Amino acid sequence: MPLRLVSISIALLVLLAGCKSTGTAFNPPGGIGGARAAHIVVGSTCNTSGVATFAGTATGNVAPTTNIAGGSTQLSVPDYLFATSSTLYVTDESTDEILEWPSSATGNTAPTVTIAGANTTIESPSGIEVTSGSIYVADFDAPAIDIFPASASGNVAPTARITGANTHLQEPNGLWLDASGNIWVADQGTNALMEYAHGATGNVAPIATISGATTTIAGAGGMFVDRHGNIWTSDYSTDSILEFAPGSNGNVAPSKTITGGNTGLSRPIDVAVDGAGYVYATNLGNNTVDVFSPTASGNATPVQLIGGASTELGCTAGLGLY
């Protein structure tokens, strides 16, 4: 399978001892009310190859409250994830599967639902988001966006698919739905953030594209639109988190950039923002989760940093909040 979020050098491959870079999707459209996230859910693509949940206020070298890991889980390279108070959805780039568990699941627990097989057309799945009626998945290798019924299970065909030359998709990573139901994708192949209209299907052009030198996007990874319409991505090439103003389109400058030595950002794979405006990022380079204050900008120090042996994190990738 291709390395999805980053072309890793030989030196970094040795350093990470076989870890692959990957990514995430996050909360329900529009964010979490106006409150802090109560739970932080993080995928690890090496070490335990599991999905760990931490309290929303967790910081330091703390053990997760739950951790799904082991042979029965079917997890191999858990990439992006989507978490709600009732259900956890995970894409696995190695096995081409979408896996579901109750949010309370822990240990060596088999998934309650598996979507996989030739009919699904899934090829190296990455970003995922779930609404009351549909499951949206970015297919990195296809390249495509597949849409399944929320009740889908087994070897089922998608009910809609966005793919073709007009879409400009090359290597879609993070995926997010905004409050209007429009689909946003962070595309690694074009280093662009692309928006597709609600209900789009087939070989359709995006209705907005954020790309170009002024954007500073060099390694598009995670994708998020917060409750105020601000557009976010993690950039693994520049160790940055970028925010763009609502309605941004074209070769525009970010409204905010979080980057620098104080941030602790090291090949950030995913990004999410809770209802209170706190910014979360997973770091492949140092196996940590950073949390920044709503006013953080530039070379800011995180207000929370989850990392260390007790966290059981390794090659941190997917990120979810609820």
| Level-2 CATH architecture | 6 Propeller
Helix content: under 10%
Mean pLDDT: 91
**First-last Cα distance:** 30 Å
Q: Tally of extended strands?
A: 24
Task: Please state how the strands of the largest beta sheet are arranged side by side.
Answer: 3-2-1-24
CATH class bucket = Mainly Beta
Beta-strand portion reads 35-45%
* Largest sheet data: 4 strands, antiparallel
* CATH fold label: Neuraminidase
The backbone outline, from C-alpha atoms, is: globular
Task: Find the structural class using helix and strand composition.
Answer: mainly beta
Summarize this, please?
This protein is mainly β and 322 residues long. The chain is built from 1 helix and 24 strands. The strands form 6 sheets. A 4-stranded antiparallel β-sheet has the order 3-2-1-24, with no helix packed on it. Strands 4-5-6-7 form a 4-stranded antiparallel β-sheet, with no helix packed on it.
Notable traits:
Neuraminidase; mainly beta; 2% helix; four-stranded antiparallel sheet; disordered N terminus; 322 residues; 24 strands
Describe the structure.
- This protein has one domain: Neuraminidase, CATH 2.120.10.30.
- With 322 residues, the chain is mainly β.
- The strands form six sheets. The chain has a four-stranded antiparallel β-sheet, with no helix packed on it.
- The chain has one helix and 24 strands.
- The chain is globular, with a radius of gyration of 17 Å.
- Strand 21 and strand 22 form a beta hairpin.
Task: Present the secondary structure layout.
Layout: H1 10-16, E1 39-44, E2 51-55, E3 66-68, E4 78-83, E5 87-92, E6 97-102, E7 113-115, E8 125-130, E9 134-139, E10 144-149, E11 160-162, E12 172-177, E13 183-187, E14 192-196, E15 208-210, E16 220-225, E17 231-235, E18 240-244, E19 256-259, E20 268-273, E21 279-283, E22 288-292, E23 304-306, E24 316-321
Antiparallel strand pairs: 1-2, 1-24, 2-3, 4-5, 5-6, 6-7, 8-9, 9-10, 10-11, 12-13, 13-14, 14-15, 16-17, 17-18, 18-19, 20-21, 21-22, 22-23
